# Entry
Amino acid sequence: MKAHATEDEIQEIVRLVEQLDYSAHIIRGVERTVVACVGEERGEQHSLTHLETAPGVERVMPVLRSFKLAAREVRPEGSRIKVGNAEIGGKKLAVIAGPCAVESKEQVEAAADGVKRAGAHLLRGGAFKPRTSPYSFQGMEDEGVRLLEVAGKRVGLPVVTEIMDPHDIDLMVEHADMLQVGARNSQNFSLLRRLGRTRKPVLLKRGMSTKLEEFLMAAEYILAEGNPNVVLCERGIRTFETATRNTLDLNAVPLLKEWTHLPVVVDPSHGTGMWSLVTPMALAAVAAGADGLLIEVHPHPETALSDGPQQLKLNVFADLMKSVRAVAEAVGRSL
Ligand code: PEP
Ligand code: MN
# Structure
């Protein structure tokens, strides 16, 4: 739409688009509004090009990539996703920190205090854990979600936790500020669709063998159902290299920033699997243009019930934050 298109003109275009059997998604940017039309082009009579002459329309532009609503073209300035009192996207970086799993009230409260003091913006903690072995600790489930919520409220940080099963969605929507879809569920399309029917911010992790185009198509499932609040997370992929848990794909950061308006966060904890590599790769991610970081932090990593080797102690996390601030400023961002 033209920069000064009226609300009536926008609504009229939505009506015309729907009449042509496309779904219309209104995307409101800072400068202008885009009406994204998704559907199959089935011959002349369904063509959208004649809408170019309608009042308020600037131009009709085909998006040739397979992902439509996620495409950079529909929001060139980039999306900012509000999560409680935090925001992901924009000049300021967002840091999500906390333990891999909520293990007890004492543990999550200590983690919350530590990450808040160091300057994190969101608190994380898994309550439903996707473990490779069914004999490993599976998480505190409902109780874990509630402990995380209480800890987050006390220190004033919005909370992020992983959803594995669509049946838990009501519980999760009520008690968490952002829902993580883990690498193993990255292409669980029924879960993605279900999340798309809420307005809850979603932290969508890249699957361990998901190509970037497939990753954006997974995001598209959420967007197409009407939930625009999606943040992407690069967390490392499987390669032939076994010296590290995963290979953190930092190519993904600038490439995703070219392809999509969605914010991109990097998780060097799962990306490396080794606590000593987390700070250097976090700094590299910020230098590469990430909009935020996801860092696993535990008050006593040596006793952690999951992902102990990659979790940072509270003092190491505090040092990471200082270094991140310096790199952020060097590349025109802030913390
Ligand atoms: C996690 O965040 O603790 C997690 C299980 O991550 P991923 O899905 O990336 O393996
Ligand atoms: Mn973990």
